[in-house]
Structure formats: C-alpha cells, structure tokens
Specification:
The complex is a heterodimer of chains A (370) and B (220). Chain A is mainly α and 370 residues long. Chain A has 15 helices and seven strands. Chain A is 63% helix and 8% strand. In chain A, the strands form three sheets. Chain A has a three-stranded antiparallel β-sheet. In chain A, strands 4-5 form a two-stranded antiparallel ribbon. In chain A, a hairpin with a 6-residue loop joins strand 1 and strand 2. In chain A, helix 2 runs parallel beside helix 11 and helix 4 packs across helix 13. Chain A is globular and about 90 Å long. With 220 residues, chain B is α/β, with parallel strands linked by helices. The longest helix of chain B has 7 residues. Chain B contains seven helices and nine strands, in the order E-H-E-E-H-H-E-E-H-H-E-H-E-E-E-H. The C terminus of chain B is likely disordered. Chain B has a domain of 131 residues: Alpha-Beta Plaits (2-Layer Sandwich), CATH 3.30.70.20. The chains are: A mainly alpha (370), B alpha/beta (220). At the A-B interface, helix 3, helix 5, helix 9, helix 13 and helix 14 of A face helix 2, helix 3, strand 8 and strand 9 of B.
Chain lengths: 370, 220
C-alpha cells in the first residue's frame, strides 16, 4: 500500500550527460561516391562483358567480388589522397600542362617516353641497385601477368573452348567472341605456356620475393626501418598466393587431385587477403607512382619557364611556378612562413637557409666568425 | 634512445669534413653523405656551417610531400623518403626551412639525414657525431652535454610567422629560449664587390662518390 505520509523524493539533480565514446570513423563522402561509382561501373562491365553472366564462372565469383571491393578501396583511397593540398596541386598542374593547346601531341610523346622509363623499365630503380631492380622487375611482371590472366577470367570476359572441328585444339573466347583465328594445340609449347601462365607468374614472383627477402634479412638499413605491416606483409601475401596457386597445379598433375578442395580454398583466401591489402598497404604505391610521370611534365614546364631567385644570394634555385605553388599550399597545411624581411622564408634558397642557421647562432651568441 | 639527444653547435665547426666522410659510410644511405657543409663567407672567414636534419616535430617536408613518402617515426626521427613512394618532385627540398633534403636525379629520389637510424635505433651514435673532433655535432644525454660545456640547447626556431620545434638541439647562449631567424643583418657581405663566398676552394673534393664501391655493391 502506498503511504501518503512519506516525504516526497528530492528532485533529481541535473547531472552532466555522460559522453558515450563514438567510433572515430569518418568516411570521406567524395571518396565513397567515386569508389561506389567505379565499383558499379566494373560490375556493369562484368555483367555485359560476360554476356549477362552467361560466360561467368560461378566458381570464381568470390575472386570477382573481392576484385570489385579492391577497386572500390583503391579509388576511395586515391580520391582521399588527391585531396591533400600538395597532391591536388600536382594533379591540377599535371593535367593543365598535359592539355596545353599546341603541345598535346608532343606531350603524348613525352608521356609515352616517361611511362616507359619510369613505369615499365623502371630505370631509376636500376640506378639504385641492379639486384633491387631485378627483384622489382620479377615481382612487377609476375603480378602483371597474373592480373592480365585472372581478372578477365574471373569477370567472365575470357575463357577457353575446344575447337569444334579439332577438339584437341583450344581457342580463346573474349567477351563472347570466339577468336577462331587464334587456335592452338592444347598439348604444345604455346598451349603449355598459356595454360601455365599463372605458374610462370608465380615463379617470377617467387624469384623476386627471394631476392627482396635476402635484402630485408641482411641489409642494416632495411632491418632498422622496415615494418611488418608495410614491408614484410606484402611479401608474405605474394608468397602465399604464389605457392598455393602452384600447389593447385601440383595437386592436379602429380597428386591425382588430392587435397585440391583444401588447396583451392586456401588459395582463394590468400588472394582475397591480397586484394583487400591492395588499397591500404604497400601495393598502393603502384597507383601513386603514376604521379611520377606528371612530375616529369611539371619539371619540364618549370625549367622552361621563369626561375625564382633567392632573396639573399640572388641565385636561381627553383622554378617560379613551383615556388608560387609551394607558397599557395603551405597555408593550407597550416604553415605560415611569412617573413617581414624577405616576404616569405620560402624566398630563400636552401643553401642560404642552411647558412642562416649558423649566422643566427653567431648573432645570438654575439661572436664573430672563428 | 629516449634519453639521447642530438646537439648542433656550428660555432665549433672546423670544416674538417670528417662528418661528411663518416656519414657516407652509414648503411641507411650507402655511400652518400647526408651532411651539408656550407662556407659562410670565404673572403673573411674559414667558418663553416654543418647542417644535419633537425627532425622537426611537424616536418614541413612531410607536409608538402604529395606522395606521403616522408614518415616520422614514433621516436621523432624524420626518415628519408620511402623509395617506392617518392616521385622526385623536390617539394621537400624547396620547402624545408632548414634547407636539408636533397634530390638525387639519377635515382629520382630525395634522400636526407635520418640520424643514422640503423645505429641510433639500437642505441649507437650517429656516424657524424661519433667522429666530430670539435663536438660541433654531439650525441648524448643532456647531462653529458652539460658536463662538458656551457650554453643552453634549444629547439625552437622562428621563421618569420612560423615556429618550428625540432628533435635536434642548437646550442645557444644561456637565457635564449629559441632562435629568431634574421636575414637582413646577414645580407651585407653578399653585396661587397670582392665578396666571393660562392667560391669553394674544396670544390674539387665534391661530390663524394655517388657510385657504390665494388665491395659494397653486393650488400645492396
């Protein structure tokens, strides 16, 4: 029973609201939109390229999903990366310079040349070390071959069929089109090479991994600066993909198909992990390095244009364009190098900046030169 | 490593270039010296200015890098550009307020002093500090430093409106709390008719060999 004589409870005190910790995850809207757009485009391309899934191999669906997600991740990160002030500036300038009226044909030639030297031949790595270059080339071509074969296969764009007239011959079917002008005997050197293309890619990768691993185990500098997630993880993933991929062939050819199901599952998992790592790990440099070609344009244009002079020694030390661009992006990065005496500290050449540290130490100390 | 600090005292520099030679023997940059040695005013003085990376708390070089190639480790060392990422734009070279990073066109990459990270990360001294005969470059604890000389190590620099704090300390007179970078009072000598501080009598010694000695090649 309620007792009416009991004094009323004191009113509740207003307490500070307890802040509930929230997940510190923010998605970049532009990155999300572009990522989704590219992933959707690829999905549509898979749909039509596989003749409305007629040529799509259901057994490879997992690889296809992982690739679509990897594309989303790569585009997302690329868009976020492009929004950084210095990156945005180079992106903008690169295209401006490339599309300059009257220079487009010449620029295309320069682009092809720079693309060959920097992206395919990778001459700059050879200058660092031949062994390093060889390792990089082996991994590069291994990955390129593997991607060129697997992506169209998993998308249903590419498959092999027996020739009706001669069943021992194979032909390539690309986007539903039988390339009957190119048939090859299954049991021939060319047939072996095509059917074992992924094994060739794996062997190339394994050779490169062995060289890289040797350097990462012995080199003092690498030992000091390498990180597991950035430097070892990519090698582990490539190794796992290559070895499990080759084990499929080994099971098929030498073990009468034993353990095939287990191996194929393991291989799929390693490939999914590789694809998930692609946008967020070290492999992202594959996409970043393309900017190297843009920088080549930027430098060429800067060298042909007016040069900035040092406010102290009057030496030319940088293109006017790069100096102006630097002064534009520095405030966006929260850096204000405005200097009452020289306008901006960035108006001094690096050599004078180095000298001025010592000169100002002398000034503060009140001493003359030794 | 946490108690160890790097102290720079250019006033003590005697221009012997031992630091440059030792630096080029460090494993992290393999045959290239990351030390800059400037001649202040050849006509009037033998004074030289050694410059190592000051390892800024908020490095301008990393901020202006379009490729995210410059990383600062948890212990405050700003690393050379990462080889796979550096796209050779030279933004860092031109933006660093201390003028430290260098661009090497033949390898299309920026390299700079990383405080001999292979050594300092395991408690050893950087190559330059271990050989500097006048201790213009000194690596040790604050107590060690104070037991050997006067002056106050400071790590705050004012570049006009911009304040930069660094992991490396510059030796200043007692009472100074930082260094305001003045330019005007250091302009005069440049414009004297006989000023020739752009001449380097030791230029024939430069550059230090870029190619690796045969004995080192196999290790790369």
């Amino acid at each position: 029973m309620l007792n009416p004589n009991v004094p009323a409870l004191p009113p509740r005190r207003d307490t500070e609201p307890v802040l509930v910790p929230v997940m510190d995850v923010t998605l970049d809207r532009r990155g999300l939109l572009y990522g989704l757009a590219f992933a959707t485009l690829l999905t549509v391309a898979v749909y039509f390229g596989s003749q409305r899934f007629h040529g799509f191999d259901g057994a490879l669906a997992g690889y296809c999903f992982a690739t679509v997600f990897a594309l989303f991740g790569v585009v997302y990160r690329y868009v976020v990366w492009l929004q950084r002030p210095p990156t945005r500036m180079y992106w903008k300038r690169g295209w401006q310079l490339f599309w300059q009226p009257g220079h487009r044909l010449q620029n295309l030639g320069l682009f092809l040349r720079a693309g060959w030297e920097k992206l395919i031949e990778q001459r700059f790595i050879r200058k660092r070390s031949r062994k390093r270059w060889l390792a990089h080339q082996l991994i590069f071509w291994g990955c390129i071959i593997a991607i060129a074969i697997t992506f169209p296969l998993t998308f249903g764009w590419l498959r092999f069929e027996s020739d009706f007239a001669k069943p021992s011959d194979y032909m390539i079917v690309l986007m539903g089109q039988r390339l009957d002008f190119f048939t090859f005997p299954a049991r021939s050197a060319l047939g072996w090479l095509i059917m074992h293309g992924l094994n060739v890619a794996a062997v190339l990768c394994l050779g490169g991994i062995a060289l890289v691993l040797g350097r990462r185990i012995r080199d003092e500098a690498e030992l000091a600066t390498q990180r597991f997630d950035n430097d070892i993880m990519p090698l582990v993933l490539l190794f796992a993909v290559s070895v499990t991929g080759m084990m499929l062939t080994a099971s098929n050819m030498f073990l009468e198909g034993k353990f095939y199901y287990w191996i194929t599952t393991t291989h799929a998992v390693t490939v999914y992990l590789w694809l998930l790592y692609l946008p967020f790990g070290k492999f992202f440099h594959i996409f970043q390095r393309i900017a190297n070609v843009g920088v080549w344009f930027y430098k060429a244009a800067g060298a042909n244009g007016p040069q900035a002079r040092c406010a102290r020694c009057d030496a030319e030390y940088i293109s006017q364009m790069q100096q102006d661009d630097l002064k534009t992006i520095l405030p966006d990065l929260g850096l204000d190098y405005t200097h009452s005496q020289v306008g901006n500290w960035q108006n001094l050449c690096p050599s004078c900046r180095r000298k001025l540290l010592t000169l100002n130490q002398f000034r503060a100390t009140g001493k003359e030169f030794m | 490593m946490s108690d160890m600090r790097f102290f720079v005292d250019p006033i003590r520099c005697i221009g012997c270039k031992a630091c440059m030679q030792a630096c080029s023997e460090c494993d992290t940059h393999k045959g290239k010296s990351m030390i800059h040695l400037e001649y202040i005013e050849r006509g009037a003085s033998t004074q030289t200015a050694p410059m190592v990376c000051m390892h800024c708390d908020l490095p301008t070089c990393a901020a202006v890098c379009p490729a995210d190639a410059i990383k600062r480790t948890e212990d405050g060392v700003v690393q050379s550009s990462q080889a796979p990422r550096c796209i050779g734009c030279s933004n860092c070279v031109n933006a660093c307020p201390f003028g430290v990073p260098r661009y090497y066109p033949e390898i299309d990459q920026m390299l700079k002093c990383d405080m001999c990270y292979d050594r300092t990360s395991v408690g050893k001294k950087p190559m330059c500090a271990s050989v500097c005969p006048s201790e213009a470059l000194f690596y040790g604890t604050l107590e060690e430093f104070q037991s050997r000389r006067g002056g106050t190590p400071q790590n705050s620099f004012q570049f006009g409106e911009q304040t930069i704090t660094t992991k490396v300390f510059l030796v200043l007179p007692d009472g100074e709390i930082g260094l305001d970078m003045d330019v005007i009072s250091h302009m005069d000598a440049r414009f004297e008719p006989d000023a020739f501080d752009h001449l380097d009598p030791f230029a024939h010694l430069e550059p230090l060999p870029m190619e690796q000695p045969q004995t080192l090649r196999g290790r790369l």
